[in-house]
């Protein structure tokens, strides 16, 4: 069973090993949740979000140095 569906709103939180978690995106709309791959991974999942360009840049930057998590709004 999937927890997220297209149209849901989520906040995206960046968690780093050192320091407090920080919110990177607020009320981002879930655009797509692709089918999970059959090959086991690291426990992560792909979620496609619809966000403004500035937020997209912040997500890419945060994702390169932090683990990202989503919370339902």
What is the element layout, followed by pairings?
Blueprint: E1 9-15, E2 22-32, E3 48-50, H1 53-65, E4 67-72
Antiparallel strand pairs: 1-2, 1-4, 2-3
Q: Can you tell me about this structure?
A:
The chain is of the alpha+beta class and 73 residues long. Helix content is 18%, strand content 37%. A 4-stranded antiparallel sheet has the order 3-2-1-4, with helices on one face. A hairpin with a 6-residue loop joins strand 1 and strand 2 (22-32). The protein is globular.
N- and C-termini, Cα separation = 19 Å
- How are the strands of the biggest sheet laid out side by side? 3-2-1-4
Number of strands: 4
Number of H/I helices: 1
Organism: Streptomyces cirratus
Protein name: Flp pilus assembly protein RcpC/CpaB domain-containing protein
